[in-house]
Structures are given as structure tokens and as C-alpha cells.
Amino acid sequence: MSTYMAKAGEVERKWYVIDAAGKPLGRVAAQAAVLLRGKHKPTYTPHVDCGDHVIIINCAQAVLTGKKLEQKVWYRHTGWIGNMKETKYATLMAQRPEKAMELAVNGMIPNNTLGRQAGLRLRVYAGAQHEHAAQKPEVFEF
User: Fold this and answer.
1) Sequence spans of domains, the chain
2) CA atoms within 13 A of residue 131's CA, in its CB half-sphere
3) Beta strand pairing status for 73-77 and 84-88?
4) What is the C-alpha radius of gyration for the chain, rounded to an integer number of angstroms?
5) Nearest to residue 105, comparing CAs of 32, 51, 55?
6) E strand or H helix at 69, and its extent?
7) pLDDT for 73-131, tens place per residue?
């Protein structure tokens, strides 16, 4: 019996909504990364982009376990010499919770063209409202 290999034109994409309220940030990001890659499908093919669209709502209510809220730091560099910027996750979750979720999900998808395509299918919102009701997204529970 031969192994099934999906082709790019055969991929059917669905829309999923994940509610992050009261759930750990990393657990939500891990499930979103699996959906974005398409690893939950029986037709998963590693070299084909067969993932789905993911909407994450209520990111402001996601929790960080342990002492991560005080100790975890997001570093970025501006490109200028000596301009390494750091932001504590307490500040990041208070001001830009969508960015914290995007950073977590992007760290869990591959760093290649397939990962960049998967990242474009991620939509993140701090509150419960999103503008993708026309796509009829399914609620994803884990």
C-alpha cells in the first residue's frame, strides 16, 4: 500500500475559534500551532501547507503559570548598536496580550516558508469579539 501525499490543490481549510480565557498561554499556543500546521488531519503531509485558519479570542484573559508573569522577558533588537529592548511579560500581557500570544504561536511553528504561510492564517484578539463570523468558524475545545 502506498503512502498518501496531499497536493496543494486538494487541501480543504476550515476555520476554528479557540477561547484562551483562563487557559495557560502556552497550551493555547501549542494547540493553535497544531491546527495551523494541519497535524490534526489524517491527510497531513509534511511538505504541503495543509493547515487551517485559527482565531484566538480572549488573549487578555490567558494565564501564565508559575512566576512567568514577573520573570519572563521578551527581547527584541532595533538594529542599532546597543539597542536591545526588553519587556517583562507583566507589561506585555497588560498592554499587548495579542503580541504575547503571537510570539508563543510563532515560536511553535517551523522557521521556513511553510511556517510563514501558517502564521498568516492566525488571527488573535484580546477580547471576545472578532470579525470573522462570515466564515462560520467552529469552536475548538481541548
Assistant:
1) 14-64+96-139
2) 0
3) antiparallel
4) 17
5) 32
6) helix 68-71
7) 999 999 999 999 999 999 999 999 999 999 999 999 999 999 999 999 999 999 999 99
